[in-house]
Automatic annotation (TrEMBL):
Source organism superkingdom: Eukaryota
Species whose genome carries this gene: Anisodus acutangulus
Protein name per UniProt: Small ribosomal subunit protein mS41 SAM domain-containing protein
Domain Small ribosomal subunit protein mS41 SAM span(s) in chain numbering: 38-97
């Protein structure tokens, strides 16, 4: 009980003591600036995955279908294990709203 009161009082102090210039953090992702398709997504992932753009566009076709594609389907398309893992990792992050491809490509 005492801990609850202590934490409650301190949380009020912390929120009131922040300067007005600091932005509060939010768990909501920003709206996407660019329409994301398979080529933009794979270019955003990078690391050699973008070599499979033509294969995935011809076989899967739609980005929404790529988001629900399983590893066995990617394996049947002949995509190497490392690339499958990257694609599945970033599709999961994209679905959760934790990652999105950049609007402009990263310059090396």
């Amino acid at each position: 009980m005492a801990w609850r009161q202590f934490l409650f009082c301190n949380s009020k102090l912390l929120t009131n003591s922040l300067p007005s210039g600091f932005a509060s953090f939010s768990s909501k992702s920003n709206p996407y600036l660019v329409k994301v398709g398979i080529p933009e997504f794979l270019n955003g992932v990078g690391k050699g995955v973008e070599t499979h753009v033509e294969k995935l566009e011809s076989e899967i076709g739609d980005f929404s279908k790529l988001l629900v594609t399983r590893t066995l389907k990617l394996k049947k398309l002949g995509i190497p294990c490392k690339h499958r893992k990257l694609i599945l990792k970033y599709t999961h992050k994209y679905r959760l709203g934790l990652w999105r491809p950049r609007a402009e490509p990263v310059k090396a």
